[in-house]
Amino acid sequence: MAILSVNVDHIATLRQARGGKEPDPVTAAAMAELAGADGIIVHLREDRRHIQDRDVRLLRETIKTKLNLEMAATEEMLGIAREILPEMSTLVPEKREELTTEGGLNVAVQEKEIARAVTALQEAGILVSLFIDADSRQVEAAKAAGADFVEIHTGHYADAETEDEANRLFTGISEAIKLAAALGLRVNAGHGLNYTNIKRFVGLEAEVEEYSIGHSILSRAVLVGIDQAVREMADLVRFL
Ligand code: PXP
């Protein structure tokens, strides 16, 4: 059975739109946990466009499940992670101009640098996940870099415009997931997953431990409330 971690970045996006105190991602995280989320994820970006340092500190103190700190592998972020001590850090590539994380890490090209970040985090007792595209070279490089987990990027599959494209991209995802598991990596998946496209992952329950989902849940939450939105997704994920 897979588990659901809820990314609450977009609660902070709404708060930052007015620069005030509400809505608070810390409150949203507590409500998501009460509705059945198994973990909370936040991405502390270099430009602090949504999640702030204060949010990460308060989440560390208040959440009852587990905290996954998504971050770039910079000295600043490594220092913050080693101080805050999330249960997991997910390393992602980060570009100032992007709307959201666009692609996976190029571990195959930056293996040494990434391996150094992986070790720095693991030495502090933090599990490390590398967000990568569904590409065998990247899976093998993640293994070589010493990662505990990979998070397979599902965003291109989620954005597919035709059934054929979705089928082709899903086959690649499924192969990457199976390769990672065969190499002894633990596997998460995420980006762009919603209440419909998640159903495709049925049958991968032996390989995928956790789904990382934010935008679709919070979009539904605006209309039906966060409790119902999280419960509906948690039910789908547990059925996979
Ligand atoms: N995983 C990673 C690495 C991400 O960067 C994001 C977006 O912050 C997500 C999962 C969640 O994506 P979405 O908000 O599209 O569900």
Question: Explain this structure to me?
Answer:
By secondary structure, this protein is α/β, with parallel strands linked by helices. The protein contains ten helices and eight strands. Bound molecules: pyridoxine-5'-phosphate (PXP). The site of pyridoxine-5'-phosphate has 19 residues, from strand 8 and helix 9.
Topology:
Layout: E1 3-7, H1 9-18, H2 25-34, E2 39-43, H3 53-62, E3 67-71, H4 75-84, E4 88-91, H5 111-123, E5 127-132, H6 136-144, E6 149-153, H7 155-158, H8 163-182, E7 186-190, E8 208-213, H9 215-224, H10 226-239
Parallel strand pairs: 1-2, 1-8, 2-3, 3-4, 4-5, 5-6, 6-7, 7-8
Helix pairs in contact: 2-3, 2-10, 6-8, 9-10
Brief overview, please?
With 240 residues, this protein is an alpha/beta fold. It has helices at residues 9-18, 25-34, 53-62, 75-84, 111-123, 136-144, 155-158, 163-182, 215-224, 226-239; strands at residues 3-7, 39-43, 67-71, 88-91, 127-132, 149-153, 186-190, 208-213.
Task: Please supply descriptive tags for the structure shown above.
8 strands; alpha/beta; single chain; binds pyridoxine-5'-phosphate; TIM Barrel; 240 residues; eight-stranded parallel barrel
Q: Identify every distinct bound molecule in the structure, by name, code or SMILES.
A: pyridoxine-5'-phosphate
For the secondary structure, the number of strands is: 8
Number of domains: 1
The CATH architecture designation is Alpha-Beta Barrel
Evaluate the radius of gyration: 17 Å
What is the CATH topology assignment? TIM Barrel
Q: Can you write the helix and strand succession as a string?
A: EHHEHEHEHEHEHHEEHH
Arithmetic mean of pLDDT: 96
Helix-residue proportion: 40-55%
Number of helices: 10
Fourth-tier CATH superfamily name: Aldolase class I
Low-confidence stretches: none
What is the name of the CATH class? Answer: Alpha Beta
The best one-word shape is globular
Strand order of the largest sheet: 1-2-3-4-5-6-7-8
What is the makeup of the main sheet? 8 strands, parallel, barrel
Q: Which structural class should the secondary elements be placed in? A: alpha/beta
What amount of the residues lies in strands? 15-25%
What gap, in angstroms, lies between the N and C termini?
Answer: 7 Å
